[in-house]
Specification:
heterotrimer, A: alpha+beta, OB fold (Dihydrolipoamide Acetyltransferase, E2P), disordered C terminus, B: alpha+beta, 4 domains, 4-stranded antiparallel β-sheet
């Protein structure tokens, strides 16, 4: 191989590497990114059981049921529709009725959303951003002034 | 005092404008006097910023609620330590800390840079002045920490409780030292582009700054990770949260820069690439600042946000990243390319390292920005989390880690892989043995876990091999070997320590992820639970009172093998009345390198309490490895090579160096 | 004054940092090539050191030495003699003068726009050490808070502070204070109804389930508690049960004492509910719900003016009818809340005089006033 050919092959190998990395990245984005839904969105979007999504909304008043051990059931609502959620684990400190939450997990075959993580707002000052945007879009929530 | 601080801040802004213009004009026209302004102005600017910061800190310490920022983020009952750390526990104060560090580093260049060519020094200080001016303006226009309230409220609104922690005292300053440290590398690069030439002393200056920045960034990330681990009570050490990624991207790019700067210094090769990397690394630091400060992302780090700030930082971002890249496009062709090398050589290995690291940076960047871009374009909301990064970042890291031990053993210019492999036989054997032991003797170990342990041992073994080979292990007498080991250049130790630390961190991650166990259950007082061979007895909850909170403290006794208590672990639910916030204080007990971690959940109606327990084997190595990496960088900084290059002092130090004793 | 002196000194220092290098002598700077040469020499010596340690092979070292040598040669070729520094141009002098002038002008101008030079630092410890008579209500409250922070189980302290919080519209604090008072000093109708009011006010006037619970607890202790009755009816109205609410309010009007401050509030509420009040319009003493609501929407100055008018009215009434124990206490507290320490002291004096210095009431007044930071001395 001449020097030029050698350099070309190095460059080509580098490009092939970058191409593979880019391909992998976009494949992973398609497969592993989880979409965010509010309960009312689920009526129009069909989410098959087992697909990971993030479900956000408010914890519906009076729906928190503590089951055996550390399993908790509650409903997440956007004031239009609500979805039943079960979760085993420790709820975040700021998990309360009527507060915004984001749960991540998948629907079981029975239509109950099985969450493996529940995030509440971190701070008194704001809701999880996705939830706030969604609720604002639906006109059920206004930002408090203070 | 407060107003003195405010005035000093304004004055520092005025000086930063002088700093950005006068030396630049001087360098363009070759005017010595104008160039000489850079140094004193930079140092004075730092002194004024420090005065300003001290004024703000004293307002925080004295609970001066006539200062709006103090009122919003402090409380008179907070312990003194958190009053002081609260100075930078909020947006305004943290930006002031940012410019304080920026001006400090600028002043260091001004003071230590007497051995730099005059025009290079003037241009570097001018670019530092530009960054400083932009951020001073940002602070004064949108985030002034010295806004006053009259009449002054009598009590503050308290610091966000989860920030009331010692971790906060250390994490942001370290992170900023890292972020801002890269600004020096950036300024050197832009200065070289302005001049159209890269001096030989360029790499000698950029490398130590990269080391300093990288060292602090490593520490900052490790500290932040540990803080999230024990403070958020989820038991995780890394969440691939966009804000974490924002600090991780400059780290990856900075690691690449650290390695390419070696090639540049030793071999004058990869000049243009190194320049570009330096620009990219600081751009990623700015991007991190933008993502965290603008409110584009919401997380614990996003303090009260304000769209005006986001727009302002976006302008700064566009100006600096766009400007420097445009300058690069214009000027890069004027720079001379350096020495050639064979693909299989130390340089080749470092290029491979750079290829992997920059690609990894790019995947993290895509994963972080894609959701934002998608939302801006289509309104669709997605989250990109651990599964994405496991699939993309993981496959890039594995081969990179596998080739790390080869790098230091290859010769410059033309290397011998076979010889290097032979030297690494012992490390390889150790790695295989570790894999076999893990796979065969530890219950539930997956192939993946065995591979991970093997890789970690391979890295540690490789680092030790490097030291052994360079000190002549096996070919000389032990006494000679010891003398040679002590006499090795510091940078060799630095490399070995950094790679060793990387191996330890990997071992910690693999240990925790693959062999950790977890239990969630409801416990009544007196009940016991067993987890990975440790028995814990729940003693009960007791209410306690802290200075600005009340808590329900759960006490657990760790039972020894003989049935007697072997120490207690406490975890608590704290209530901070001022912010009406509950936090969980996790209980951690370190046993060897591993930790028993537990956190309290809600109380059930029947009096039992939800408890979550984790056994985290080798978890402390994750951060311990980070500390070892930091130590590596610190040792490397002590290398004598980095202190040379002043023609003015030619007689003395150069003569001494030419004839080393 | 001191501040301006410091500012002037800082400006002087900053200007000097610009000026001195400009007027200083020209140092002969070495051309950049010399710096490069220095680095290459050091690289050569490093090579020797590495070879002495056996870190690199002699062959490699030779090659590297040749490479560095080539760089040094290239440097010599590039550095042509006669590349002297150009003479300082006129434009440079211009830049220098602008820079020197910019520092004081820009900083004083910008600070003039942004700063508050007349506002001294106010560390909390200093403010709290001041004479209580000069303190504002906020500072008195802070003092009480500091006292409670040190003695958090002082139920009486919480009890005193709670209504003050309510008046200062610090509703969440009022909730906490009432809860603490109830926890430490036990239930009472006044505390429970105060708690309810605080919770409701914190929620912008909505009678939530928590507030309702508190009001109901108050009624259990004192079925005639006007505040609790009033708010519970309000809660009914908010739920849409207007008829029930109106019935409850009508019933209240029948039971309230003719001079009860709640009378006008009830009438107001009935008016809003679209029901005429029972024609029994006794003069009202306390502020009605609408007045309070109006006060919440007013600017701070207007609100203060309104409160002052109401306080003046109360003062007049007490001058005519001085044997109103509760009225005096309300007056003293109002003056304290308004920051009028002298008038509070004056009112205390008149209250004590009205009942006689040795009376049970006088002692109560003195203790009450002391808890607010007002003493009868002077």
């Amino acid at each position: 191989m001449t020097r030029k050919q050698k350099r070309m092959s190095v460059v080509l190998a580098g490009l092939a590497f970058l191409g593979a990395a880019a391909g992998l990245t976009f494949y992973a984005l398609g497969q592993k990114a989880s979409y965010f839904y509010m309960p009312a969105d689920l009526a129009t979007a069909s989410v098959p059981p087992g697909q990971r999504i993030r479900l956000g909304g408010l914890v519906e008043k009076g729906t928190i049921v503590r089951g055996q051990g550390a399993t908790v059931a509650f409903s997440v609502t956007d004031k239009q529709k609500s979805v039943k959620v079960t979760y085993t684990g420790i709820l975040p400190d700021l998990f309360r009725e009527e507060q915004g939450v984001i749960t991540e997990g998948a629907f079981g075959p029975d239509g109950v959303f099985v969450a493996d993580s529940v995030l509440a707002k971190h701070d008194e000052r704001y809701m999880p951003k996705e939830v706030a945007d969604g609720l604002k879009a639906k006109g059920v929530w206004q930002e408090s002034t203070n | 005092m407060v107003e003195t601080g405010h005035f000093a801040l304004v004055l520092a802004f005025a000086l930063s404008l002088v700093q950005m213009l006068v030396p630049l004009v001087g360098a363009r026209t070759g005017n010595q006097r104008l160039m000489a302004v850079g140094g004193p102005v930079t140092v004075t600017g730092f002194a004024l910023t420090a005065l300003s910061f001290a004024a703000l800190a004293s307002a925080y310490a004295g609970s001066d609620f006539s200062v709006a920022s103090v009122w919003e983020n402090s409380h008179s009952l907070q312990p003194m330590i958190y009053k002081i750390t609260g100075t930078w526990g909020n947006h305004e104060g943290s930006m002031l800390l940012w410019v304080l560090i920026l001006t400090f580093f600028g002043a260091l260049v001004a003071v230590l840079g007497n051995n730099l060519p005059a025009t290079l020094k003037a241009n570097v200080l001018a670019v530092q002045g530009m960054i400083g001016a932009a951020f001073f303006l940002f602070i004064l226009a949108t985030s002034n920490p010295f806004i006053r309230l009259n009449p002054a409220p009598i009590e503050g609104r308290d610091l966000n409780p989860i920030l009331q922690d010692l971790g906060l005292a250390i994490h942001p300053p370290m992170l900023y030292l890292g972020y801002v440290g890269f600004s020096i590398c950036f300024s050197f690069s832009v200065a070289a582009l302005i001049e159209g030439r890269i001096d030989a002393s360029w790499a000698r200056w950029v490398r130590p700054w990269t080391l300093v920045a990288w060292m602090f960034l490593t520490g900052g990330i490790a500290m932040g990770s540990y803080w999230a681990y024990y403070e958020l009570g989820w038991g995780g050490f890394w969440f691939w949260d966009p804000v974490e990624n924002a600090s991780f991207m400059p780290w990856l790019a900075g690691t690449a820069l650290l390695h390419s700067a070696i090639v540049m210094e030793k071999r004058s090769a990869l000049k243009i690439w190194t320049l570009l990397l330096a620009i990219l690394t600081f751009s990623l630091s700015l991007l991190g600042t933008f993502l965290v400060r603008s409110g584009v992302l919401t997380s614990v780090h996003a303090f009260a946000t304000d769209p005006a700030r986001g727009v302002f930082i976006l302008c700064i971002l566009t100006l600096f990243i766009g400007g420097s890249l445009a300058l690069f496009a214009l000027r890069a062709s004027r720079l001379t390319v350096g020495g050639l090398f064979h693909p299989i050589s130390r340089e080749g290995a470092l290029v491979l390292n750079n290829l992997f690291l920059t690609t990894a940076t790019a995947t993290v960047l895509v994963g972080t920005l894609y959701p934002l871009a998608l939302e801006a374009l289509t309104g669709g909301k997605i989250s990109v989390g651990a599964p994405f990064f496991d699939l993309t970042f993981g496959p890039l890291m594995l081969p990179l880690l596998a080739i790390v031990p080869f790098g230091p053993l290859l010769a410059w210019k033309r290397g011998d892989v076979i010889a290097a492999s032979q030297r690494l036989m012992a490390a390889f054997a150790a790695a295989i043995a570790a894999m076999l032991v893990t796979g065969l003797f530890i219950d539930g170990a997956s192939v993946f876990a065995a591979l991970g342990v093997g890789l970690a041992v391979w890295l540690v073994g490789g680092a030790l091999t490097d030291l052994a080979v360079k000190s002549g292990f096996g070919s000389v007498a032990p006494a000679v070997m010891l003398r040679r080991l002590v006499g090795l250049p510091r940078s060799v130790f630095g490399t070995a320590l950094a790679h060793l630390g990387l191996g330890l961190t990997l071992l910690g991650i693999v240990g925790t992820l693959c062999f950790g166990t977890e239990k969630i259950l409801s416990m009544r007082p007196g009940e016991t639970v067993e987890l990975s061979g440790h028995t814990l007895r729940f003693e009960g909850l007791s209410p306690q009172k802290g200075p600005n909170f009340t808590e329900d403290r759960g006490r657990f006794l760790l039972m020894g093998a003989d049935g007697n208590a072997d120490g207690a672990i406490t975890s608590a639910k704290r209530f901070y009345p001022v912010r009406q916030t509950v936090t969980t204080e996790s209980g951690i007990r370190t046993i060897g390198l591993s930790q028993l971690y537990l956190s309290l959940g809600d109380e059930n109606n029947d009096g039992s309490v939800v408890v979550r327990l984790w056994w985290k084997p080798l978890v402390t190595l994750i951060w311990g490895g980070g500390l070892v990496m930091m130590a590596g960088a610190a040792v490397s900084l002590l290398d004598r090579r980095l202190r040379v290059g002043a023609p003015a002092k030619r007689r003395t130090p150069a003569a001494a160096l030419a004839n080393p004793t | 004054m001191l501040f301006w002196v410091i500012a002037a000194i800082l400006t002087l220092g900053a200007s000097l940092a610009v000026l001195l290098p400009l007027t200083g002598g020209m140092k002969g700077a070495s051309p950049a090539g010399d710096h490069d040469l220095e680095v290459y020499r050091d690289q050569l010596s490093e090579l020797d050191r590495d070879m002495a340690r056996g870190l690199i092979q002699p062959g490699e070292a030779e090659e590297a030495r040749a490479e560095i040598g080539r760089r040094i040669l290239r440097l010599g070729a590039a550095a042509q003699p006669g590349a002297a520094m150009p003479k300082p141009a006129r434009s440079a002098r211009w830049v220098a003068s602008v820079a020197v002038l910019a520092v004081p002008l820009l900083s004083w101008g910008l600070y003039g726009m942004l700063g508050s030079p007349d506002l001294p630092s106010q560390p909390l410890a200093e403010r709290l050490a001041k004479n209580p008579a000069d303190s504002s209500v906020d500072e008195l409250v802070a003092r009480a808070e500091a006292h409670l922070a040190a003695n958090p189980s002082d139920g009486k302290g919480w009890d005193v502070l709670a209504p003050i919080y309510l008046r200062l519209q610090r509703f969440p604090d009022a909730v906490t204070a009432y809860r603490n008072a109830i926890r430490l000093d036990g239930d009472s109708a006044v505390r429970q109804s105060g708690l309810g009011e605080a919770i409701a006010s914190a929620a912008g006037g909505i009678v939530s389930a928590d507030a309702q619970k508190a009001f109901e607890a108050a009624l259990k202790l004192d079925p005639a508690n006007a505040k609790a009755n009033f708010y519970l009816a309000m809660g009914l109205a908010q739920e849409g049960k207007k008829a029930d609410a109106v019935a409850a309010w009508q019933k209240m009007l029948g039971q309230l004492a003719p001079d009860s401050p709640w009378r006008s509030a009830v009438q107001q509420a009935l008016g809003e509910a679209g029901e005429p009040a029972v024609a029994d319009a006794a003069p009202a003493k306390g502020p009605g719900a609408q007045q309070v609501e109006a006060a919440q929407q007013m600017s701070p100055q207007d609100r203060r003016a309104m409160i002052e008018t109401m306080v003046a009215g109360l003062d007049d009434k007490l001058k005519q009818n001085p044997r109103d124990e509760e009225g005096w206490m309300r007056l003293i507290r109002s003056y304290v809340v308004l920051g009028k320490a002298d008038q509070a002291r004056d009112a205390l004096g008149r209250a004590v005089a009205a009942f006689g210095a040795d009376s049970e009431q006088a002692k109560k007044f003195t203790a009450f006033a002391a808890s607010l930071g007002v003493t009868a001395t002077e």
